[in-house]
Amino acid sequence: MFSGAVPTYLDGLFETVSGLTTTGASVIDNVEILPKSILLWRSLTHWLGGMGIIVLFIVFLPNMTGAVHLFNSEVPGPISERVLPRIRDNALKLWQIYLGLTVVQIILWILVGMNLFDAVNHSFATMATGGFSTKIPV
């Protein structure tokens, strides 16, 4: 909203939540006129949402009680404290694979003729299967 890309706070919130949930719904009619920073933000929300915010919290904030409570609220059944280190290791491995596949996809987009900015944005969006693009669909 501060950049002028969307007219209201609610539209900005909708756009961000749409990215984080990887639904791909958008309130923006013409994405090609948006600043590159906004386009990158939209794609980055897809990319983060694709792997899941819960995994992000477990990997990067493992000692915070909020991450543990978030994990416990999302996983059914009793969980022992010994399980968390293994989950953290697995989540880190998943992020490494996700990042690796993203880099491979960026390289492939560039090899077929896409510029670096569009390759990064489309890789972020397609890894999460969300659908945000830097171009207007034809």
Structure description:
By secondary structure, the protein is an all-alpha fold. 63% of the residues lie in helices and 0% in strands. It contains six helices and no strands. Helix 1 packs across helix 2, helix 3 packs across helix 5 and helix 5 crosses helix 6. The chain is globular and about 50 Å long. It starts with 8 loop residues before the first helix and ends in an 11-residue tail after the last helix. 22% of the residues are buried.
Q: What about the largest sheet?
A: none
| Terminal-residue CA separation | 27 Å
Uncertain runs: none
Beta strand count: 0
Give the topology string: H per helix, E per strand.
HHHHHH
Class derived from helix and strand content:
mainly alpha
Q: For the CA atoms, what is the radius of gyration?
A: 17 Å
Count of helical stretches? 6
Q: What proportion of the residues form beta strands (DSSP E)?
A: under 5%
Question: How would you describe this structure in keywords?
Answer:
single chain; 138 residues; mainly alpha; 6 helices; globular
Can you give me a brief rundown of this structure?
Helix content is 63%, strand content 0%. The chain is mainly α and 138 residues long.
Task: Lay out the secondary structure.
Layout: H1 9-20, H2 36-51, H3 53-60, H4 65-74, H5 83-111, H6 116-127
Helix pairs in contact: 1-2, 2-6, 3-5, 5-6
